Please model this.
Amino acid sequence: MLFNSFIFLPFIFCVFAMALVAGRRARVFALIAFSYVFYSIPYPPWVILLALCTVGDFHLSRWIDRSDAPGTRRFAVVVSCVLNLGLLAAYKYAAFLAISINDISQGLGGVALLPVYQPELPLGISFFVFESLSYTIDVYRRRLKPADSLVDYALFICFFPHLIAGPIVRGRDFLPQIKKHLPFQRSATIAGVELVAFGFFKKAVIADNLAPHVDQAFLDPGSLSGAGAWIAITFFAIQIYCDFSGYTDIARGIARILGFELGRNFNWPYLAQSIADFWRRWHISLSTWLRDYLYIPLGGNRHGVPRMLCALLVTWFLGGLWHGAAWHFALWGLYHGLIVGLGGLAYARYGTRLWDPLPSFAKIGVTFVLVLIGWVLFRANSVPAAWTFFDLMFQPWSGRFLPKSLADIAPPVGVIAMLAIAHFLSWRAYRGDEDGSMLLARPYTARAAALALTLLAVVLFAGKSQTFIYFQF
Amino acid sequence: MWAIFGKEILVPALIGILAIAGLESWVRSDAAVDYIDVHRPGYIGIPIRVVVEKQLWHLEALARTGVDRVAIVGSSSVVNGIDERTLRQQFRDLGYPLQPQTLGVTAFLAYELPLLKRLILTSRTKRVVYLYNLFSFADQVHPEAVDSRWDLPEMLRLQPLQPWDTAGNNLILDRTATNFLWLTRYRDLLKEEAWRALTATLSPLDQPYDYPPGEIIAPSQRPQAMEPPIPPGTGVVWLRKAYLDSTGRNDTMGYRGLERFCALAREAGVDFMVAPVVEPAFNRFSAYAKEADRETVDRNVKAIADRCGATFVPRDGFKDIESRDMLFRDFVHLYDTGRDIYTPRLGEMIMSR
Model:
């Protein structure tokens, strides 16, 4: 079910009504039931996967916790990894692997070696598999006591606000909240409603209105000038931020109203002053997951520079593939891994002398341009398509770089400037804390007016409804 | 909990809903409908969604005119192929009692006839002439038009909910919002008009056609030999594919929609006439329309018309127009010289039956 679908309105109304009347334990059961309904809307049989993942990891983690024999514990955690990653591999990567092997074989003059089976990707599988996996690993590492009951664990995995597109929640953050959650607390409700309203605004008014322009640009890059390509990729940068952070805001807002706190996922990423800083601000729940469960186990920065670079590149390569089973996503991951690695090397060699003396706006500008270049790899449908786009962007001497008339680019540049100003003003209003609340300290009339106006703006100015971009992952 | 829920969620939501209701009633007022209709944008350089909505808005405006009318319904061939003023003059000169109104909308498909019954079968509609083309009877919902050209009960009659197709059912419910709220039904048009008003570029529509009269036609638009396939992603491919996917069938959503509309017209006491719109003979070479089987489509339509008591007019009377390449600007639309010839002929056809 989409947050921006018509059916979500009666759904959330029922959820809130239930939360108002039910006691704590009944509420937990009801939230699980509602979450399964939420997940079943696109394709009901997918709930079997969710249930399988939940029951399997719940019992495996208890087994791990009960056992003192290292071999048994290791065996159980391996089974959990195989179960979770096996699901992900079967649904997301099997076809990609088969196609890649066949391509190589055919490229060498042979025949296709493997049959290609391409099932539809269950919604949110990359998110709930990572959540479940981190839970069993944390129990294995004795950093987390397993959940007391299957019911609590089921709610942790299936809680509908984070189920389909995150944030990726950790058991140690969520499970303790179940016993003490209280819906409709004053400050949490005000901040939650604010998150929901502004999240819808970002998604429906900004992202969905930019989406057709971005789609058209990538469908037919031949019609673009070089400047047009830069504008299109800037539009995409704004679109994906508003789409994904908008979704996260709605998810966190609803959870907060219901008495749960989900980890923050964004912290003004386009104001980052380096790529490493960008990844401390963008999709925080994924980057910290990759750090804790991949980069550090691979050695992190504890075994010298070559090992660190290898760990970085493997982490980012897999992080890229997490976003989609395609080479352009893998390249996007490697691109970011490479820049982070080179940044680390430069820091080791020159310390802060090279980068820090630059003024903040220059660091923000350079970082943003590097992020834009990465977005081309992310958004293009294939590596050759990305190259076509790069050709346009990086040949300022070509006759095609400048548009035929400045009037052609004035409106989109105006839109970008307007959104940049709005972004800066909201950064000021939130005092740089994307997690904070702007309305909490305002009088009631101002709050009510702001929310009513946002609702009106969403109805009036929404673009054509689009699926949330991160649903595909 | 109840107090906080009421104060922080319900009250702001109700204020927002009241503001939406106020704006909605203003947008639906006669003054606003007329003003926006007169100042609706043209076609060239306008996003297709705005085009679809402005055409439907024009239908809303026409439905409010207090004249007994003959409504000529169809796709962009009707928008561009009929000169309403010439037809009105012709009717007046010959004492025909009804006023002609062209209700053409881009990419109109036959299943949409019942979905637009509110706008076509008004109390002042005495006759409906539906001019179909080869691609009118697809078995699919057009992706660019559905949000605005929608009527839930009629759609469910054409395509009932499937118990296990939750995604499809969800989509149908989503589109239903546009049934109630013009602010969403005509959102793209209203945004365009607001933008034009803000930038002082709002002006009355200078001519009702998609293409400006007097345009020079590229000879390449008239293929003389079989063309290569149309590249994927081109807009017209959807229509062609939708047609080919259902070719040979006489039970598609399009045919069911035609039959349903015919019954609705009969119930309303409205005379219903169906005829093929003129299409250039060179179409048989075009990548767009090659392999399209005119005879089968005509036969299916005639069978439905005979069953439900509508008048079917065969294409024989317009063969001479179809064979004159120079009257067409492309493989679908008449050039203005073609419109000048086709309009009075259509008028004669309407008046003679």
